[in-house]
Prior knowledge:
The complex is a heterodimer.
Chain A: H1 2-16, H2 19-45, E1 50-55, H3 61-64, E2 72-75, E3 92-95, E4 105-108, H4 114-135, H5 140-150, E5 160-161, E6 167-168, H6 172-206, H7 209-213, H8 219-255, H9 258-270, H10 275-288, H11 296-324, H12 328-352, H13 359-366, H14 371-378, H15 385-413, H16 423-430
Parallel strand pairs in A: 1-2, 1-3
Antiparallel strand pairs in A: 3-4, 5-6
Helix pairs in contact in A: 1-8, 2-8, 2-9, 2-10, 6-8, 6-11, 6-12, 6-14, 8-11, 8-15, 9-10, 11-12, 11-14, 11-15, 12-14, 13-14, 15-16
Chain B: H1 2-6, H2 9-27, E1 33-43, E2 48-58, E3 62-66, H3 73-80, E4 88-93, E5 96-97, H4 100-103, E6 107-110, H5 122-132, H6 137-150, H7 166-178, E7 184-188, H8 196-211, E8 215-219, H9 223-229, E9 232-237, E10 240-246, H10 247-253, E11 258-263, E12 275-280, E13 284-289, H11 295-304, E14 309-315, H12 319-327, H13 332-336
Parallel strand pairs in B: 3-8, 3-9, 6-7, 7-8
Antiparallel strand pairs in B: 1-2, 1-4, 4-5, 9-10, 11-13, 11-14, 12-13
Helix pairs in contact in B: 2-8, 5-6, 5-7
Amino acid sequence: MNKIWLIIKREYITRVRNKSFLLSTFLLPIVMILFIFGSVFIAVSTKSKAKIAVANDPGYFKNSIKSDSSSLSFDFTTGVDSLNYAGKGFDAVLYIPSGTSNNYAIYSQKQLGLETEARIRDKLNKAIENNLLQQKGIHKETLDSISKQTKDAVELNNRVLDENGKVKEANAGLAYGIAFGSGILIYITMIVFGAMVMRGVMEEKTNRIAEVIISSVKPFQLMIGKIVGIAGVGLTQFLLWIILIFTLTSLAGAFIPHELLEQANQVNNQVPGGMQNNTAALKFLEIKGILGTANWGLIIGCFLFYFLGGYLFYSSLFAAVGSVVEDAQESQQLMFPIMMPIIFAFIMLSSGLNNINSPMMFWGSMIPFTSPIIMMGRIPFGVPWWQLGLSMALLIAGFLFTTWMAGKIYRTGILLYGKKASWKEMLKWAFKKS
Amino acid sequence: MLGVVSVPAPMNYKTINQNSAHTIKTEHLFMSHILEVKNLKKYYATQKAVDDVSFGLERGSIFGLLGPNGAGKTTLIRMITGIFFPDEGEIIFNGKKFDPINDVVHIGYMPEERGLYKKMKIGEQAMYLAQLKGLSQKDAMAQVKDWFLRFEMQSWWNKKVEDLSKGMGQKLQFVTTVLHEPKLIILDEPFSGLDPVNSNLIKDEIYKLAQKGCSIIFSTHRMEQVEEICDHIILMNKGKKILDGSVKEVKQQFKENLYSIGLEKMEHINGSAAFEAIGKNDHSLIVKINPGHTANEVLQHFIQQNNNITSFNEMLPSLNDIFIKLVEGTPLTRQFEKITD
């Protein structure tokens, strides 16, 4: 035990003292903060207004298309066409087809963007609808009063009930953000720290120190010591990041002008579906107020558990690969089967977040190959206790199994030189009776 | 330092041995062997790496483990250091069945392929390896400082291994192998890459360790070093022990009754039934004494011829000759076979 502790200490200290650790630990939050505020700034400042000329208006569009104060304005001046619109100060020109054709065309020098196009289409549809209604004898005043009444007539609140039938406060956006964020973080850290374990093992093998060390300690102790030491490095890094991000965000929050925040808020409200575009704005808002709706104790606790569980599950496999190769190139091929389930889990998470209670997400959160990422995606939306318990138990069983298996591969591989093993051979070593 | 080095090593060693012989024998009267290997076997899928090998290693002795590449030396050493488990057979260490977990602290092993953490500071590295061998931090510090002083390495403490020359790395490797004061030291080619000065420095330390009662297994291909240093040797080939004995015994066993005779007159030498002349140079004749005859008969023959004898020496085979004779004909394929477990 004392020897494992020595190994853990060495692995931890040599890495934490390394310049690249300090650099990545202190630069990454700064880069992240810059990224967050940069994208808020871009989201706010690039919302330019598009001026659109409408050509060939059959008559009713002029009255029913309304300019949108913040982003779109329509102009019905005659004599504008696709050749001269830019000269007359328009961003685009819209051609309305004659008769019943639905072939609307819009000409512009720059791409208008999906969002603007969608908004123009909505407005045109609405104008046609209004025109048809009027043709059927509904007066414009009636129509206006109906649309005034129906606007915001419904406020939809998703109230999630807990086991006791009590309403839990939930914020889907926040849950989505946490789910995606923690999924991504586990995904990245499993790969980064797994690869760190692999490189460490490879270094010991190619430096030929492995034989010296395992004449003092058991190979398994050396492998576990390395894995645990690097896990410590990972946890230290998380802790420092949390502290740094928290400090920097509060500092930055104090310096950001109030109206910028308001604008960010607006951006977010206007495009409820545009999560990815506005994670930055959303993140800031989380900090500004709605953080309380998430069960942070559970999320952080589970995050640490699934980070450690997933890391332990995979890092021993990475160690096994490191023990049979002598250079980085050789490792690529053997790493592929390990990387695949990790990448697959991440793809599953990004597509499954829209349908969080699907069977795919359930099974993904149970099977240890994918559970660290998928379960972290499910937790912010609420997971029954029995499922959480089962998933954790399976993950523990899973990493005990992979560690045991990897230990046997490692024991043989670490002293084997001049020959690259295949997964087939490695599995043979793993299941051979000692 | 130079003063120490200039003392011829073998002489130094013999003096030491004579002085220490008494104490060693009385102290360990009932268990003179630090290590006993009994019928050890380790079979791999493709070959018998170690096949029924037995030998004993006396305390304070320097033991040569010889054999061509692929003979099974490394596998044997790995079993003795607890890295591999034997398939069959027994290892008795210090009078008890070898316990790989607790006994490894009494063993120091320097593999042929040297290994150190390149990016780690030398002082910390030595401390780490010493503590892995069970020394407390305090003891480790004292030992490391002592050895660094002895090898004039104090100024290296904060250097990294990657900044050292090959020879310096070798010295550090030797220090890390012995600084936990093991009872058994296994050195695989300890002098490779060392200049004569550092070679002598390490040779000297090996003698000193043996004098303190530490037993040393010395694995090498350099036969002249074996002749110079080792008390006892075994020779392995194809996984089997094919030779076992003291250097003197082995040479006696393989002598071919060759003598070199210095003669005043080298012309017109008559033959005799007692010997066969097999070579000559300006001043001496090399003869092989025929079975049933003695050296005295040969001498008498030349005395009767009235040829003055200036010298007469028995020509014992060198270990190198014996080695080559014994292992010649080993198929090369075995030497290149991959060892997989």
